[in-house]
C-alpha cells in the first residue's frame, strides 16, 4: 500500500478512497497475508478511517511458553483531525475532540500500511494465552499452605530484622 496524498482523497468521488488489500506487512510477521478493506473518507477537517482486516499470527503463550497460531481480526473506525497549526483544537467542530486521537497536516500524506499495522498491534491479545493452556499453573506448597519460595523470602526478612 502506498502513501495517499490527503488532498487527493478530498478530490475522489464522494471524498472517499477504498483500498482492498491482500499483502504481507513489512513490520509484522504473519503466517498469512493481511487481507481486508480500508475506507478513508475526507470530512473537510478530518479523515474518517474504517478498516476490516484479518490475518494469522504466531504467538508465544505467556503461561506455557508454547507457540500457537492466533487469528487476528480488526473492525475499527477512527477519526484523524487535519490541522497544520499546533495548539488546542477549535471548539466549533461537529466531532467531539475526544473522538480525535491523531492529527495530520491537511496537505500531508496518510500511510495506510502504517495505520493498519498500528491497529493490528492494538488488537493483539494480552495476555497471550494459548487455547489449550491450563487454567492456572500449580505451585507446590509446604504443609503450612505457603509456597516454599515465599518461605525462603520470609526467612531473609527475619534475618534482616535480627541484624
Describe this structure in words.
With 163 residues, the chain is an alpha+beta fold. The chain has one domain (4-136). It contains 3 helices and 7 strands; from the N terminus they run E-H-E-E-E-E-E-E-H-H. The chain has helices at residues 6-11, 112-122, 148-162; strands at 4-5, 16-23, 34-42, 46-60, 67-82, 100-104, 109-110. The strands form 2 sheets. It has a 5-stranded mixed sheet. A two-stranded antiparallel ribbon has the order 1-7. A hairpin with a 6-residue loop joins strand 4 and strand 5. The longest helix has 15 residues, at 148-162. The termini are far apart. The relative contact order is 0.18.
Return residue spans where pLDDT drops below 50 for at least 5 consecutive residues: none
Order of helices and strands: EHEEEEEEHH
Note the overall shape.
Answer: elongated
Number of strands: 7
Distance, first to last CA: 66 Å
What is Rg? 24 Å
Quick overview of this protein structure:
This protein has 163 residues and is of the alpha+beta class. It has one domain.
Write the layout of secondary structure elements.
Blueprint (H helix, E strand, L loop, with lengths): L3 E2 H6 L4 E8 L10 E9 L3 E15 L6 E16 L17 E5 L4 E2 L1 H11 L25 H15 L1
Amino acid at each position: 500500500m502506498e502513501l495517499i496524498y490527503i488532498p487527493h482523497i478530498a478530490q475522489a468521488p464522494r471524498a472517499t478512497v477504498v483500498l482492498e488489500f491482500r499483502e504481507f506487512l513489512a513490520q509484522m510477521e504473519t503466517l498469512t497475508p493481511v487481507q481486508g478493506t480500508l475506507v478513508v473518507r475526507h470530512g473537510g477537517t478530518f479523515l474518517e478511517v474504517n478498516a476490516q482486516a484479518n490475518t494469522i499470527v504466531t504467538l508465544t503463550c505467556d503461561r506455557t511458553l508454547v507457540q500457537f497460531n492466533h487469528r487476528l481480526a480488526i473492525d475499527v473506525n477512527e477519526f484523524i483531525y487535519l490541522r497544520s497549526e499546533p495548539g488546542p483544537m477549535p471548539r466549533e467542530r461537529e466531532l467531539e475532540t475526544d473522538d480525535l486521537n491523531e492529527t495530520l497536516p491537511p496537505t500531508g500524506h496518510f500511510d495506510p500500511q502504517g495505520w493498519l499495522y498500528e491497529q493490528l498491534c492494538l488488537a493483539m491479545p494480552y495476555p497471550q494465552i494459548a487455547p489449550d493452556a491450563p487454567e492456572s499453573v500449580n505451585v507446590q506448597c509446604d504443609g503450612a499452605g505457603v509456597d516454599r519460595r515465599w518461605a525462603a523470602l520470609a526467612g531473609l526478612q527475619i534475618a534482616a530484622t535480627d541484624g
